[in-house]
Specification:
- It is a multi-pass membrane protein.
- GO terms for molecular function: ATP binding.
- Pfam families: ABC_membrane (PF00664), ABC_tran (PF00005).
- Keywords: ATP-binding, Membrane, Nucleotide-binding, Transmembrane, Transmembrane helix.
- By secondary structure, the protein is of the alpha/beta class.
- It has 2 domains: 312 residues, Up-down Bundle (ABC transporter transmembrane region fold), CATH 1.20.1560; 217 residues, P-loop containing nucleotide triphosphate hydrolases (Rossmann fold).
- The protein contains 19 helices and 10 strands.
- Strand 1 and strand 2 form a beta hairpin.
- The chain binds adenosine-5'-triphosphate (ATP).
Length: 566
């Protein structure tokens, strides 16, 4: 069931692990089952030890016939089966709790990323973000399915065992009582060092993921430039870094397992020696001695398992440290406002707008410009002059550092990106296409469009003719990033997609790049038909395209060149 909770807001928790435990509380029904299973496991273990000790007492000390202990043996088998079933329920409940928590966190993360949009995610690279939403959320699972149940078992079972061992043989009970704290103590001491290692492991993993993504996307260029060997060496280096970081984490995990085994073994051995002497001196019955001896390893087992799952704790805590700040990342001020739905084209005013990438590079400066409602305003200028930046500012993909953009007099800064995006359509320089059919790609921004609307949009973007030539027409499947069509055809498809959207503002970045003169003329005619009902911002280097605009504004080095206006 989808999580209907709002994308997380408020102040970020100081301790990410505390946040994760808070999340676990949302599945308290499952957690109660886990605690119940832990208690039942403890009671069944005690009963098993008692039955086994009684059976041995009767067989060895009281020389009973084997047939006399058959009921005890049957009961033992029933208890063993009971323990197995409780273990299955425990596992099922922990897995169900983990699935619920993961689904809820993932939903909220997606919605948070959507609310933040590109403007709110400036400074975040996409590969680590994708890693956080996918692998990062998965890494919470061992924390919930292994560490949390083990922590409950480790808190409950040893106390339960001590309660029955102390009255039976208090000396052995004291050995258990005083040796037990060493296990969590060493677990924490060793674990502290490995927290840093876990963080380093994650950094290496995201670096490797980002590098591999770049590599796969740029493979054709790398092949042509003959840089594959060099890149292969870089991949080998990054993978080696990751391997070294993984080995360091595993070394600590093995070391901690060794320390835990050592204390548990020494503790059990001391209990065995005490019981041995007390049996020898005849002050303890075989039944009592065996009962205590059987419970000694069971006493350490939950503590040892907790120690072993400490690795899962660190892994989950490291993942929570990446997820919680993202979930609680504040929306930029004013992002919550919504623009009312509009059917008329807006008038847009740039008032002294400045933006520089990273606060220092490129961008635009002190732009004052009016895009009249329903008109076509074109931006011209040399490469790097700031045209795309202005389009990105208008689309709300980046926010002005100074100045304001007014939509029908309303500051764009005060509006949630989603309500603004619902009003616009845009054709970027490199439009996004996914591995799906042409129809699915066309319907990306307007899922309800019917056949007649699709046909009209394709006609307007002069895309109908080339689609008609494809054997499967609109049902032709495209590859990744639109593979299967030429650059010019993809441009026309992107334009058709923009026409299809019932938007009141169109932003077109080089819509005619890659088109021949005939198609360019057709697209310009279509644009003129679209204007009137839409405000259009058109970016182009081509004179024939610029000619269809009502007004051409020239950008030079990030500023408007008033002398170049046409
Ligand atoms: N992501 C970025 N990080 C840093 N600087 C950038 C970034 N994107 C663009 N710039 C810089 O901002 C300036 C304006 O870039 P912009 O893409 O707006 O130019 P443009 O006029 O659209 O160029 P073109 O016609 O080549 O597309 C350039 O100097 C560019 O180097």
């Amino acid at each position: 069931m989808p999580d209907e909770r709002p994308a997380t807001s408020g102040t970020a928790p100081a301790d990410a692990e505390q946040w994760l435990r808070g999340e676990a509380r949302s599945v308290h029904r499952h957690l109660r089952w886990i605690v119940g299973c832990a208690a039942v496991t403890g009671l069944l273990t005690i009963a098993q030890a008692l039955l086994l000790a009684t059976a041995c007492q009767r067989l060895i000390m009281e020389k009973s016939a084997p047939a006399a202990i058959i009921p005890l043996a049957v009961l033992l088998l029933v208890l063993a089966a009971g323990r197995g079933m409780v273990a299955i329920v425990l596992e099922q409940r922990s897995a169900a709790a983990a699935a619920r928590i993961k689904q809820s966190i993932r939903n909220r993360l997606y919605r948070k990323l959507q609310s933040l949009g590109p403007a709110g995610l400036v400074g975040h690279e996409s590969a680590p973000l994708a890693e956080t939403v996918t692998t990062g959320v998965d890494e919470l699972e061992p924390y919930i399915t292994r560490f949390l149940p083990q922590a409950v078992l480790a808190a409950l079972l040893p106390c339960l065992f001590l309660l029955v061992v102390l009255p039976a043989e208090w000396r052995a009970g004291l050995v258990l009582l005083f040796s037990a704290p060493f296990i969590p103590l060493f677990m924490v001491l060793i674990g502290r060092g490995s927290e840093r290692l876990h963080r380093r492991l994650w950094e290496r993993l995201s670096r490797m993921a980002g590098h591999l993504l770049d590599l796969v996307q740029g493979l054709p260029d790398l092949l042509i430039f003959g840089a594959v060997k060099h890149q292969a060496a870089a991949v080998a280096r990054i993978s080696a870094d990751y391997r070294i970081a993984t080995m360091a984490v595993l070394r600590v995990a093995f070391l901690s397992a060794l320390a835990l085994e050592f204390f548990a073994t020494v503790g059990t051995a001391v209990v065995a020696v005490i019981i041995g002497f007390r049996l020898l001196w005849g002050v303890l019955s075989l039944q009592e001695g065996l009962f205590v001896l059987l419970l000694a390893p069971e006493f350490y087992l939950p503590l040892r398992s907790l120690g072993l799952s400490y690795h899962a704790r660190l892994q989950g805590a490291a993942a929570a440290e990446r997820i919680a700040p993202l979930l609680y990342r504040p929306l930029p001020a004013g992002f919550e406002g919504t623009l009312p739905a509009a059917t008329t084209p807006p008038a847009v005013t740039f008032e002294n707008v400045s933006f520089r990438y990273g606060g220092s590079r490129g961008g635009v400066r002190e732009i004052t410009l009016i895009l009249p409602a329903g008109g076509i305003t074109a931006l011209a200028g040399e490469s790097g002059a700031g045209k795309t930046t202005l389009a990105r500012l208008l689309a709300g993909l980046v926010r002005p550092e100074a100045g304001r953009i007014l939509i029908d007099g309303r500051d764009l800064n005060e509006c949630a990106p989603a309500s603004w995006h619902a009003r616009l359509a845009w054709v970027p320089q490199a439009p996004y296409f996914t591995a799906a059919t042409i129809r699915e790609n066309l319907l990306l921004g307007s899922p309800d469009a019917d056949e007649a609307e699709i046909a009209a949009a394709l006609e307007a973007a002069s895309a109908a003719s080339f689609i008609a030539r494809l054997p499967q027409g609109l049902d032709t499947r495209l590859g990744d990033r639109g593979a299967g069509l030429s650059g010019g055809e993809l441009k026309r498809l992107a334009l058709a997609r923009a026409c299809l959207r019932r938007a009141v503002l169109l932003i077109l970045d080089e819509p005619t790049a890659g088109l021949d003169a005939d198609n360019e003329r057709l697209v310009c005619q279509a644009l003129q038909r679209l204007a009137g009902k839409r405000t259009v911002l058109l970016i182009s280097h081509r004179e024939a395209t610029l000619a269809c605009a009502d007004r051409v504004v020239e950008l030079v080095d990030g500023r408007i060149d008033r002398g170049g206006e046409r």
